[in-house]
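WARN retry 2 of 3 for item q-0093 after timeout on previous attempt; input resubmitted unchanged.
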Amino acid sequence: MTQTADPRARIEERARNKFESKRTELAQATLHTLAELGYARTSLREIAQNSEFSHGVLHYYFTDKLDLITHAVRQYEAICVTRYDEVVANAVDATGLYADFEAKYFATLAADAGIHRLWYDLRNQALFDDSFRTEVLEIEERRVDMIWRVVARYCELRGTTPSLDRASAYVLLDGIFQRALLHHLAGKPAEIDAARAQLRSAFTMVDCSSAAAPQWRG
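OK item q-0093 returned
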């Protein structure tokens, strides 16, 4: 005979779930405010002044700005790290995969510039502050996996194998992205065009085939 769960335990579980749900709601709602202010200039009070939520509400659900920022970035990354999965799933040849990847790569550079800026800000802060270094490293590893899925599928469609390991491929593509983001924020479109050429060269590098470069579209 199955025993009925303790009613008090069920109530406590519902309360925890409700609390976490509210934390997620607040983190998502304040994400763009965080992206505008950046890590160094952010406090719960400043976030409250730039959002619809009171300082008291934010302080009830988050112990400090670090708690809120980390939770917010985790929520964003949960979506971000699957950004290119559809590109990989729908690819039928290497040229098409690259074209779709490049389009999405530069589209998110413009559309989500503030959020990407927040991520790089948080990653840099982790060099100095070990209180959230573990969370940053976990997010970074998921980003490595995201890029590797693209690179591995690209080489598979070409019938080759990657010439770089997972981490090196990520550093290469992420480095181009971060530099392009800086130029985007600085209003330098010519540098974005240069970044497109750099991305194409990067894919030539990750493919060990002697005839690596695909026939680029457009």
